[in-house]
Amino acid sequence: MIRLISRRIEIGTGDGGISNLGFDKRGIVTSCRAVLLPRFGGPEVLEFRDNVAVPDLKPNQVLVRARAVSINPLDTRMRSGYGRSIFEPLLPLILGRDISGEVAAVGNSVKSLTVGQEVFGALHPTAVRGTYTDYAILAEDELAPKPGSLSHAEASAIPFAALTAWRALKSTARIREGHRVLVIGGGGAVGFSAIQLAVAAGCHVSTTCGGESISRILAAGAEQAVDYTIEDAEVALKGHFDAVLDTIGVPDTERMGISLLKKGGHYMTLQGEAASVTDRHGLAIGLPMAAAILLKKQIQYRYSHGIEYWWNYMRADAEGLHEIRRLSEAGKLQVPVDKTFPISQVREAHEAKDRRQIPGKVVLEID
After folding, report:
1. Residue 9 confidence (pLDDT) above 80
2. Is 202 within 8 Å of 175 (Cβ atoms)?
3. What is d(CA 219, CA 141) in angstroms, rounded to the nearest whole number?
4. What are residue 206's DSSP bridge partners?
5. Residue 92, preceding bond cis, omega within 30 degrees?
6. Average pLDDT, the chain
7. Strand 143-145 to strand 118-122: parallel, antiparallel, or no bridges (unpaired)?
8. What range(s) does the Enoyl reductase (ER) domain occupy (predicted)?
9. Which residues contact 80 (CB under 8 A, 6 or more apart)?
């Protein structure tokens, strides 16, 4: 059951506005524009279509009129076939995890959000109906009020990256004031979010990054930023750390991160092998095989180094999202946006990310 819908019905303008929305007799939107992924491949496989069905809301769900959605590395990897063992039977997909927009309708058990309210949030990594659409559907605990000081484009760049960092640092490592935290790859959205979250928690933060990111990272409160392109990071980083978040996740960074941990510390990598192993061997064999690989590493490092080893993934966390909102509102957490595209140019945006023409965050704006 849906409690309400939008305060207004938007009509098309003939110039790229929402001209192909479908509504039922109650005025509830039933179809809209969306970017579909009908098959895996390069940016050219993305299709911008009209009249894509909008499912009915479940009691805990919220219909969000999207104003901006950001492109995450997960989007481009999924488009290319990452996670195909899970997603191929479910094609076509709608990509996209982050969103900023307005509440258009709510399910009958939703209590914290109201129609017309500006919100931001992020979907789980395995969601099939993503946010590259006029109207996205998220669970109530995947959304929070949008920081009033941010535009929709700025707000849409934050949730998925910041929640990924939050899960690692707060839920897994349980960082607290005085801890020493190392972020390997602090120049990306997750790494930069992790730095800001750790600084806000009163931690002493060091990071590795490219030279172009150093001034921004130091301004965010990191105590040490090592340019890995010109320095030996393992030599330059001093002392040992309570937590290491490795956003790069190659063998060299894993070895370095583990060697720099204190006993009882936590090593967390964003490059867990669950999806890649499952893609190679299929769900039936791949999932238990991935679990066995992780368990073997956890036991190995616990006994050889006295540390905890984790593969880290984003999960919905209502408390975390509200803290991220609070920090963003206070100017203590941001993810800079390098370029915006209209959603109709989604292929061009993905191509620019694939070619690494835009190193930072790219946002799709929806009129």
Report:
1. no
2. no
3. 32
4. 182, 224
5. yes
6. 90
7. antiparallel
8. 41-364
9. 40, 41, 42
> The pTM is what?
0.90
pLDDT in tens, 347-359: 999 999 999 888 8
pLDDT at 30: 86
In one letter, which amino acid is 229? T
pLDDT at 20: 60
**H or E element that contains 99:** strand 98-107
Query: What sign does the CA torsion over 66, 70, 71, 72 have?
Result: negative
Classify residue 98 as exposed, middle or buried by CB count within 10 Å of its CB (0-12, 13-18, 19+): buried
Asked if residue 195 lies in contact with residue 222, where contact means CB atoms within 8 angstroms, the answer is: yes
Instruction: Retrieve residue 164's tokens.
Output: 């990924």
Nearest Cα residue to 73 out of 125, 108, 22: 125
E runs forming strands in 221-357: 224-227, 241-246, 261-269, 308-311, 337-342
Residues in the chain: 367
HSE-CB for 126 with a 13 A CA cutoff: 7
Return the residue matching tokens 């949730």: 159
